[in-house]
What does this fold into?
Amino acid sequence: MADGRRHFIKKLSLLVSLVWTGLTCARDSWAQCRPDDFPGSEGIVAAPSRPVESSAPDPIQVGVTEVETGFTHSWMSGSSTQNAMSNLIKLGAWCNIEVRWSTNGFVSNTAAGTTESGFGDNALTAQYRFHRETKRVPSLAVGYAVKFPSADPLAGLGSGHLDQEAILMLSKTVKKASVVINANYFGIGQGNGVYDTKTEITLAVSRPLHKRWGAVGEIYYDSHLNAANAAYGNSTWALTYTINPRLVFDGGAYVGLSHGAGAPGNSLFVGISYVIGDLYRVSNHRPHPSIAESERN
It folds into this structure.
């Protein structure tokens, strides 16, 4: 167990060093905000995180608060099934910073004719974009997430341990499509400060189809975690429908590409993303980019 802990700390230290190097070397990593970072005359626009596993590096507009919720029915191993209601609140804290709080508001697991249900885990995520997309270079960001064990482990609704995640994100616009790639490093808590670790690579592509319709496709691979969990691949396939710029619906399926211990099964989901409003404007504390920066950009 001690070797596993030292291994996790060593890898996390290396990742932090790489991230710090990227931040200090990026030409515009600490740049002032730009006018287009704020809601403008076109109004507030939703930027859904749903329904993919990956995270886009570009944050939502400064001060914008968005809520997302969805229902997922999953077929697990054997005859086991799960129903889950997930929720997310995210805030454009600053021009390059986004903060997200997510929770499984309700989880219900059924196995061997027995059902256990209750409140799920919570997670807090912060991400920082250190390079904006240019003609040749993609948008780049780093993130850090902590999962807090609020679910009941005795009912099988959670592990009862703290998990951590470090994320490197990039995205590029290719014609009408948005391509997002994530590299994730997980520390899954096992108790007593011990972590099992794994990496995850994701590739997601989204693009508009016709009028208000859009399509999302994603594949991702998770490495081996421990003896009880195999490496696996999974995928996401969804359609989105935009009611108005602030309200977006989604629906589709998660389709497993692998089998084995710990590999997720197939799932169907529906969800909704809605922008509540501009928090900074409502509270009369909305910041503005400097005049010099506005003219420079």
Notes: Residues 23-30, 291-297 have pLDDT under 50 and may be disordered.
